[in-house]
Prior knowledge:
Shape: globular
Strand content: over 45%
Helix content: 10-25%
Number of helices: 2
Amino acid sequence: MQSHIHAYIAYIVGRxxxxxxxxxxxxxxxxxEIEIDSLxxxxxxxxxxxxxxxxxxxxxxxxxxQYSFRTGDSVDLAVKGNSFIGYIRGSSSHFIGxxxxxxxxxxxxxxxxxxxxxxxGKAVDC
Length: 126
């Protein structure tokens, strides 16, 4: 699995749950700031909108989404409130997490690791 996929996940759930236009992410595990422009699918991420998602029918109060990147990675997500669960297609990697304010926390079962990102951005203009 490519290392940027965790930043993709943090970006996507940050947009979905926190409703922020994200300029960069601070990766606490790597002690570094990740500029969205530096990610392989930066243009696709910056143009992110609900139109880019494949929405799947689901239980009440749970949003289910699938998102495919130009790099070939694909992520399936289920979102309820501030919590999310998902997996990376083509791998055995499942993850679960939450978004609190400007922080995204999740655990990747395959990597056996916790990931913690801080959203650096602004509220999306309506």
